[in-house]
Amino acid sequence: MRETVLHAHVASRGALHREDRGLVLPWSFGPDVGAEYAALRDGAALLDLGFRTLVRATGEDRISFLQGMLTNDVAGLRPGGGCPALLLTIQGRVTADVRVAALTDSMLLDVDVRVSAALLDALEKLLIADDVELTEVAALTLIGVEGPRAASLVPGGDDLAPFAHVETNLAGVPIRVVRASEVRGAGLVLHVPAARAALVWEHLAHAGATPCGMEALERRRIEVGVPRIGLDMDHSTLALEVPVEDAISQTKGCYLGQEVIARGTARGHVNRGLVGLELDGPEPRNGLALTSGGKEVGHLTSVAGPLGARGPVALALVRREHWAPGTELAVSGEHPVTLARVTAFPLV
Questions:
Q1: CB atoms within 10 A of CB 79
Q2: Cβ distance 24 to 2 under 8 Å?
Q3: C-alpha–C-alpha distance, residues 1 and 4, integer Å
């Protein structure tokens, strides 16, 4: 199992870890997950984002190459700018989602570590005579600060446009601050030297950020409808089936999978899509089928358990005839049966 750079440090600060698809991640920082969730929504939550990594693209052709590979307009970025983007297959299915940061001499791609090898493999296979070098940046790790108070804790955080970034100094450590969020909120992602990550973590904790684990983060992510690669989207998922509109340019020229996106956009709909569900009954497992009138109409992709007085919630890929808020579906394969009610984002 792969551990994050901060694993030992946050464990010494009370983190309870859990395995998640090949990674050992901090799941909570004690019994009061509600306080961690409240910090995400209303305060400042401190997150170990070691499930993501950075890939650096260098070389004279890096911009034109990535412009032809990724779904968003990276050629329009200036140093200090950034954007979300996807890498698709030629069939328009999702290989990886990335956050792009443009630097003077390189591009940084922030990607889930569980698909970083697939990203690199797909891109390197398409390098022919291009002057581009792609390398994973092991010397840096990622820390998140989420919530309406996040920007007040990090120098320069207040002045950034979405996905823009700036170099600054925190606790004597040089870092890069990116205006980005795991839950479409007021968040910052910090690129931090791995050797000094614990120092930055402690500085932010002492400044008032509440350490927050994956349990609260996943609950909020599901509530706001942010798809996670490997769960809600993968090589079996068309990009148009998930809510990633901000990652797809409607005006740029050709890119990998663009023809499929253009056809789907012109047609005006896809046959299935990602919806939010409120669940009534036992918390089900990911992957279980959803049925209506005894007929399978979709399946669960992400599930989060109850929080306080609120029941479990989920994301699911469901056929378009069953997208309307209020539609009731049954979770198949669990006894007693859990009922699922389609709900508009945010779920709460």
A1: 11
A2: yes
A3: 10
| N-to-C CA span, the chain | 34
Exposure string over 252-288, b if 16+ CB within 10 A, otherwise e: beebbbbebbeebeeeeeeebbbbbbbbeeebbeeeb
Tens-digit pLDDT profile for residues 274-285: 999 999 998 999
User: For the packed helices 214-224 and 33-42, what is the interaxial angle rounded to 10 degrees?
Assistant: 50
Q: Model pTM?
A: 0.96
Q: Characterize 136-149 residue by residue with b for buried, 16 or more Cβ atoms within 10 angstroms of its Cβ, and e for exposed.
A: bbeebbbbbbbbeb
pLDDT in tens, 140-184: 999 999 999 999 999 999 989 999 999 999 999 999 999 999 999
Give bridge partners of residue 112 from the DSSP assignment: 52
Whole-Å CA distances, 119 to 54, 82, 83, 122? 11, 18, 17, 5
Task: Give the angle subtended at the CA of 95 by the CAs of 91 and 98, to the nearest 5°.
Answer: 125
Beta-carbon contacts of 325 under 8 Å, excluding residues fewer than 6 positions away, are 342, 343, 344
